[in-house]
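ok trying this again, last paste got cut off
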Amino acid sequence: MAYWLFKSEPSTWSWDDQVAKGEAGEEWDGVRNYQARNHMREMKLGDLGFFYHSQSEKAVVGIVEVCAEIHPDSTTDDERWECVDIMAVKPVRTPVTLAEIKQNPKLSDMVLANNTRLSVQPVTEAEWKEVCAMAGVDP
């Protein structure tokens, strides 16, 4: 299993929007960055990810699961853009902010701490466990 982080502006697609989609999940569409798209190409069914609210909140707010592997992004006819589907698994007990992540020495190499603009990014197993501990959830 691999771990990921999915960033979304809550005014565009929030944790509550994701939860409302239930087990059917939703396409993680609209990604127009090759690096982020390539990360989605690596994803497998059952991989887990953090759902991260960007903009003002800047915090991990939930855990999601990949429920459909890479397929064409339905929001464009451009064949270059693909996406996965994700479904909400559970909210975190305590949101983990970007500031807290940057202050934690165990997370100093985390992509989020060094590249806050990338919308889909990998998370190592050690980083996953540390953020889960900070968030009060079982990894």
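PB: full thing came through this time. The longest helix spans residues 125-135.
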